[in-house]
UniProtKB/TrEMBL annotation, chains A, B:
This is Homoserine dehydrogenase. InterPro entries: Asp/hSer_DH_NAD-bd, HDH, HDH_cat, HDH_CS, NAD(P)-bd_dom_sf. Pfam families: Homoserine_dh (PF00742), NAD_binding_3 (PF03447). PROSITE patterns: HOMOSER_DHGENASE. Residues 132-310 form the Homoserine dehydrogenase catalytic domain. Pathway: Amino-acid biosynthesis; L-methionine biosynthesis via de novo pathway; L-homoserine from L-aspartate: step 3/3; Amino-acid biosynthesis; L-threonine biosynthesis; L-threonine from L-aspartate: step 3/5. Keywords: Amino-acid biosynthesis, Methionine biosynthesis, NADP, Oxidoreductase, Threonine biosynthesis. The keyword NADP applies. It is an enzyme of class 1 (oxidoreductase). It catalyses: L-homoserine + NADP(+) = L-aspartate 4-semialdehyde + NADPH + H(+). Its EC number is 1.1.1.3. Residues 8-124 form the Aspartate/homoserine dehydrogenase NAD-binding domain. Belongs to the homoserine dehydrogenase family.
Length: 408, 408
């Protein structure tokens, strides 16, 4: 019998307790022994909820219970999650977390501590919710040098962009609708500004290359500047607007970014719509591999946490190797990253196209039928060169990077 | 230093040797020690190939080398692969194989032997080539009761159906083209008749439910009867024809089948085209999860084999639990499986539609503009009831099952 402590009885934490109960028999069979929840820590009370029997309000009860060998951390936030997790690891308990903020900030330290203690620090649910991605990256794709990762890593923004595309609605009204439906938070900043996706691509990239990529170092652009006109242009181009967290190997360095991207039907992520997430990984041997599923949600995310609990139970006293050093990953400077840009400009095309050619070279014009603006697509150029050229062109309204994946 | 023996230096076997050499450093770092190939068994000689230095023609050299702790089996075919693998396991060597025929036929026996010896029998590459699916099913999806699996499991047939759809060509000319390009074998029977997909869905289903599903017991229908007219109807319906290996839980039993399916854009596998494969798994907690990638090919498949070699190296002396008993899975009889059918009938609609309604009840007519035939879609009915009704209707040309996934 393996005994588990759960820190935080919110959406994911209560999902973990539910799965461990509902799928108890299957889980016991697959692990080789029963797993049961001995204590759930939360500040709140839950009158009438069966959790009452194991509910505690004092962290020390979990931390000092020698029977509890695995702790689930589903409180969210960096503090006191970090202090709690560290104490549990120091006390010899494996920890399974869904907390991307914690993992992005303290991954290497907590992994090193787990290794030292011959226990495990696992975080499948921190990226992609129920989508298996962390474990496949550590195991299935381990023979490969990772060349590129592109992910639709945030369900809220993918839902908003999908609705804008399908209904032609503007950002604000779709956001309001998403909030009403519970797909977006009251304060949607972390999602719509790309901060959530940023932490997730930081985790994936750190794992892929075995060194720390600080999320603060990743150029991050949200979707708040995407308008119905951008969407109309995208349709005209036979493309869709998605927001990607992405990284790729460039020589000995790695380039990483969170930003909206125009993608074509040939891109494996093109048909990933609504609240679904997906991650495309390119290995130097396996080629393109894609993982798709629910990137959030109580039971999907909790299922990923429970898969870690089962792994921790099967690896009692054995550290599962996870390469992620505290040493910093060598990052390509944001201005040196190379991209293709779709650019919208206010004014009359005939009057500005000479200037556009002078500044951007060989471009392809895109006409979506507007009289007061025009648009073009550049060839591949550095972010720095783009910025320099754009600064000299009057009336740039917006730019969106164009992902060429799948195009000949 | 871990020493590996490779049985069979064909496409996949030579890919394994290539990856272990090319990605040697990454692999050593991730496993914690170097992995090198000590012997490669093949009947042929390979003059000038570096493999010559380790090439052997006698199986006993591999089987009896105490330094070789992991054996890769990439010979294909059931015999003598089975005898060789069994001997290696009996001699205490873990075995990693890409051989679906072997796994489908002898999985439970070889797994039991590996468990008894505290070693491992691993077969990630036997299904979906480079796509991680076997390991995720055993680990990431372990908390879940598996409700349904649908897979595009064969690249040759997916390529043929994609070409027929995109170019409007007929089956025979596309098959010839696929053979010229090396996407189809000279004798394409195993692919186009669905036998290859059948072994793969047998393996996935056996793993999902922990009991043996004999591939001979799975109703299997290939794509040889699909014509350009079927494709034209599919387009008219806004659908595509794909061939799925699929299984699902029905009460306490499991229903399994290989057959062409009409699927709609809402289906997560709709945009999986060309030689790509993908597998959709529905868990009772995680919901829909999809895995996509190259289902065949030298390096993709070899990458999956090497991921198993790395797992075997990390689990020296520790058996990775794999539930797959020899006991037979309780299968729904083929005639009791329930499906929606698209049916084409020769003759004039006006003259036969009364009879169609009498036999099939509430159907939806589909008009693709042909004068000499018509078509309809049934409501859900059992395969047995469909056969009875179809037998009483003159001039049934073809039927294709309709997968309703994603439709409201």
């Amino acid at each position: 019998m393996v005994k588990v402590g759960v820190l935080g009885y919110g959406t994911v934490g209560s999902g973990v307790v539910e799965i461990l109960e509902k799928n108890k028999d299957i889980i016991a069979k697959r692990v080789g022994q029963e797993i049961s929840v001995k204590a759930v820590l939360d500040l709140r009370d839950f009158p009438g909820d069966p959790v009452e029997k194991v509910l505690v309000h004092d962290f020390d009860i979990v931390a000092n219970d020698p029977e509890i060998s695995i702790v689930v951390e589903t409180m969210g936030g960096v503090h006191p999650a970090y202090e709690f997790v560290k104490t549990c690891l120091e006390n010899g308990k494996s920890v399974c977390t869904s907390n991307k903020a914690l993992v992005a900030a303290y991954g290497p330290e907590l992994l090193a501590l787990a290794e030292e203690k011959n226990i495990n620090f696992l975080f499948e649910a921190s990226v992609g919710g129920g989508i298996p991605i962390i474990r496949p990256l550590k195991t299935s794709l381990a023979p490969d040098e990772i060349l590129e990762i592109s992910g639709i890593l945030n369900g809220t923004t993918n839902y908003i962009l999908t609705e804008m595309t399908e209904k032609g609605s503007d950002f604000d009204s779709v956001l309001k609708d998403a909030q009403d439906k519970g797909y977006a938070e009251k304060d949607p900043t972390a999602d719509v500004e790309g901060y959530d996706a940023c932490r997730k691509i930081a985790i994936l990239t750190s794992l892929a290359y075995g060194k720390q990529l600080d999320f603060e170092d990743i150029y991050t652009e949200g979707i708040t500047r995407i308008t119905d006109r951008d969407i109309a242009y995208a349709k005209k181009m036979g493309a869709k607007v998605k927001i990607f967290g992405s990284s790729k190997k460039v020589g000995d360095k790695v380039s990483a970014m969170v930003a909206p991207q125009l993608i074509y039907p040939e891109h494996p992520l093109y048909s990933v719509d609504g609240v679904f997430n997906a991650i495309l990984v390119k290995g130097n041997m396996v080629g393109d591999v894609m993982f798709y599923g629910q990137g959030a949600g109580k039971l999907a995310t909790a299922s990923a946490v429970v898969s870690d609990v089962m792994d921790a139970a099967k690896h009692a006293g054995v550290n599962i190797i996870t390469l992620w050093d505290a040493e910093k990953l060598d990052l390509v400077a944001a201005e040196d990253a190379r991209n293709v840009f779709f650019v919208r400009v206010s004014g009359i095309k005939a009057q500005k196209s000479e200037k556009v050619k002078e500044l951007f070279g060989n471009v392809k014009m895109v006409d979506a039928g507007y009289d007061d603006e025009f648009a073009f697509v550049t060839e591949e150029m550095s972010e720095g060169d783009y910025e320099k050229a754009a600064a000299q062109l009057d009336g740039v309204i917006n730019k969106i990077r164009v992902d060429q994946t799948g195009l000949a």
